[in-house]
Amino acid sequence: MTIKEFAKLCDCNPQTLRYYDSIDLLKPVNVDSWTGYRYYDEEQALAFVKIRNLQKGGFSIEEIKELLTQDDIAVAMAFEAKIAEAEAHLREIKAIRASYLTDMNNMKEKIYAIRDRILRDIRKYDATAEFGIDRAQYEAIISSIEACLNEAAASVPTPADIAAMMPGPADIADAVAGAASGEPVPAPAAPAEPHDFRLDPTYTVVYEKHGWANVKDFLAEFEQLDPGHYCLDFAVTADKYDNTIAFSNTILGILLAKNEGKSKSFGCYVELTPDGQNHMKLYKKVGE
What is the reported pTM? Predict the structure, then answer.
């Protein structure tokens, strides 16, 4: 019978049969060398039924090719194995769902703990000697930092929020069925490497200072900035490095305050100096 007749018998689209032919899954018994017409045998409809059901069951093309050469008992055993695999996957998803709320709540607690530690370190820091600002100016910087940290912490959903968004059993079952459809599942993206702007050719040094005692000694030289994205690179002595959190947040707070209303963003990197001297470089993204 012609491909159209066979497609009607199998209740499918002729394009499906052409695709099966192209991947050597179900080839016609004869192809007219002159016209290129495909012809099928009625008994091939049984093979088509097997292919269609194996596809619905989530078997890959290679698995289906293998099972086409085996009897119905082997096919039934393959279905049992596929069901066991899907059930195991479903149990795994349910276990993840059960631990998800706990994991998210633990992470939220860690975020708040980090926020509290940052604020504690900043509040006990004396910024006057290093940056030459009075307590009122420093309190304004602390308030700004606290507002940013609170906003970041508040963006993490609560356990109740997560519970409301969690899918029900039917949704999970659908997800398992979809995962077993034979379609390729994208692999998780690899964690991004930390960006080092010092090695990034799109950043250039626009200011640098070496051998200084305190930032206040040269702050006025670089505090006024054009709009753009900046990164500060400090190599400092141990007394400053021990207060990295307060040190870096204070300098960023000062620069933001000094350049209020300008379109800008900042990053800051602080490391222990290798030569006993204080060093500072200010990078700006090229073209900004």
Answer: 0.54
Q: Mind listing the pLDDT tens digit for each residue in 15-67? A: 999 999 999 999 999 998 898 999 999 999 999 999 999 999 999 999 999 99
CA angle 181, 60, 39 (to 5 degrees): 110
For residue range 240-274, what is the model confidence (pLDDT) as tens digits? 999 999 999 999 989 988 888 888 888 899 999 99
Contact 231, 267 (CB under 8 A): yes
Q: Which long-range contacts (CB under 8 A, 24 or more apart) does 165-172 make?
A: 166/97, 166/100, 172/90, 172/93, 172/94, 172/97
CA-CA-CA-CA dihedral for 80, 85, 87, 90, to nearest 10 = -160
Q: What residue has token string 């012609």?
A: 2
Spell out the domains of the chain, with CATH numbers in brackets: 3-69 (1.10.1660.10), 83-179 (no CATH), 197-285 (3.30.1330)
How far, CA to CA in Å, does 267 sit from each of 46, 117, 153, 178, 258?
A: 66, 20, 20, 43, 16
